[in-house]
Predict the structure.
Amino acid sequence: MRFNPRLLEVDGLKDAYARLDEIKPSDQGRAIMAPKMVHRVVRVDDIDTKAANILKQNMLSIGGEVSLPREVFDYGGKRVSAVISGNLKHYKQLIAKLKRQPFGLKALAAELEELLRPSFTQGERVLRLGGRDYDLERRTLVMGVVNVTPDSFSDGGLYYDPRAAVEHALRLEEEGADILDIGGESTRPGSDFVTLDEELKRVMPVLEGIMGRVEVPVSIDTTKAEVARQALGAGCAMVNDISAMRLDPEMPGLVADKGVPVCLMHMRGMPKDMQVDPHYDDVVGEISSFLRERAEAAVEAGVDPAKILVDPGIGFGKTLGHNLEILRRLKEFRSLGYPILLGTSRKSFIGRILELAEDQRLEGTAASVALGIAGGADIVRVHDVKEMVRVARVADAILGKGGEENGG
């Protein structure tokens, strides 16, 4: 007799319920067991040693674990980091306990509750864009890039002429793009920002040429509020800001007033100097902290949290190693609670791995897109739309998105 033991990968309550439904438990058993199947490992920083010891004692008492550095036994007011591990049932009990504790642990309880909120629920993840509702649980969206620039790293100059850019945008829609992203300013490493007048001169004729001719929503890729204002007035439905609304103080208020989605991207430095020896102690942790702070600033300015997307900024102030680490740990950004936009298309880290020029990076891009989707990306921003739509559909089908409509 063989019992055929095998490991199951469970990612979230929805997945836990699906695994349980395969063996047909009782409804009561299903509800009790699912939270026990979802395990989460959480790192917290800058915690007082007294609080760290209380945290560990409380988690141990309910069957979880907290890992601490050796200096935690020095009660001289040091601040340390801790790694908490347990299932969702453990975390619910821990949060309740911490709400009654001193040394800042009440605040930690609130942060843990917010961090794990998506894990505690099976809520829908819907992006409302351009008057449409996109169910991000059903399929990955593909954003097609239209660079109206003479010097973008991948296709600089090809679509600088407005007529060529309009034709390209129409072609990307035909190839299956869900969103078109129009940008008039190159952000390749070493580039300078262009003037407001020059950026408007580049993008507005293109927007005027495609509005009314495309059915998919259009995003404006800019850091300038005035460009965004005119683009939204021309019919754009979204703002994609590589500066996470840091460069123009009017941008947060404009986005809030217009009620459109905005993508906040991480960038270390500026395009001119971002690749000059970028350094991180914890690349994913630091990017997560940055994106959380920028999202909080956006909400404070009046932006609807349901309209915020985040982008870890592959290639923007990162080395090859940083980019690979981000992709390996992409799922960690899901804890921010916002849809993830991922842009790996034709980027230099792929060229470094394969030793190939920009126009030879199709297969490398496909690999990064597929693994990015498996890692939790909701929108992939790409140049080669036809091919990446196919990659996304297969990846979605393997992941079980959309049910039987992706199978066959």
Observations:
- Residues 13-120 form one domain.
- Residues 404-408 have pLDDT under 50 and may be disordered.
- The chain has 14 helices and 13 strands.
- The longest helix spans residues 283-300.
